[in-house]
Amino acid sequence: MLLPRRTFLRGLGVGMALPLLEAMSPAITKAAEPQSDSSAVSNTPRRFAFIYTPNGYNQATFLPTRTGDDWDLPRALEPLAPVREHVTLLTGLDRTFVGGTGVHAQCGACWLTSSPPQETLDGGFPTNITLDQIISQQIGRDTVIPSLELSCNDFTDNKETKYFECISWLSPGCAAGVEKDPRAVFRRLFGKPANRHVRSVLDAVLADAHSLHTRLGTNDRRKLDEYLQSVRETERRIELAEQSAARFSQPPLPEPKGVPENRGDYLRLMAELFVLAFQQDLTRVATLVIDPERWDSPRMFHGVFDKPQNHHVLTHTKS
After folding, report:
1. Exposed/middle/buried for 237, CB within 10 Å: 0-12, 13-18, 19+?
2. 151 forms bridges with which residues in the sheet?
3. In percent, how much of the chain has pLDDT > 90?
4. Do 207 and 258 have their domain in common?
């Protein structure tokens, strides 16, 4: 059977284009073998949060003076007191520096990478798929948002590259898109879910696709099955969004107006949205970047300096 390239799945007055099938052209390369789904189902959701603060901490206020079960809470970690028994603090870890690329970029950009430091896959950096995305591949399908990537980088210019602000990577050189605007984050978390009309259209298209299935060859059936699975996945996410919306009649906080002018307010608001995404079970994998590694632009640090400071210079000269 030879299908026209512009064949559509039809139903309820709508159409959806088919993927490229061998039946549309004898010369089309065979589809790749489908990958097995090894996702494990757990009755108890596990959540993974990765929060990155660049350029270190004030160690006098951050590092405990005692180790073992009796480790003490230094001033910077005092807010963890109520959950101290559940906290494990690891210190003294280090990462091999590879010469030839920037020190700043080898910090956050390579923090969660699955590559060894010597492996240069992207511009001299080992920016392979990161741990958060590996986890998301296993458990991300259980939530409306497979993984959430937030950044508190409020610089609006483009003086620096993605290597100074991205810690989440989908593949070598492909950084996961980050949300920096609290309003955009809010709307992604608590905006209107996809409507039921869209779901009914998908159902109709699926019915037409199943009727086509019996007329295709083996490779095309496999490829069409993968395509139908992606459609079913879309439907499932719509249902998850509707279920999430049903858990609360109103969002748990007012919609932000944008990026707050005060740096501290901005950090607190993004952190609150980060936590709410977990509380509402909208995602179970998330990253939060407190600041870029460096940015060659001035910025106000409210309550610390009385005038704007160059961020890059600050990372080298202030303590």
Report:
1. middle
2. 289
3. 21
4. no
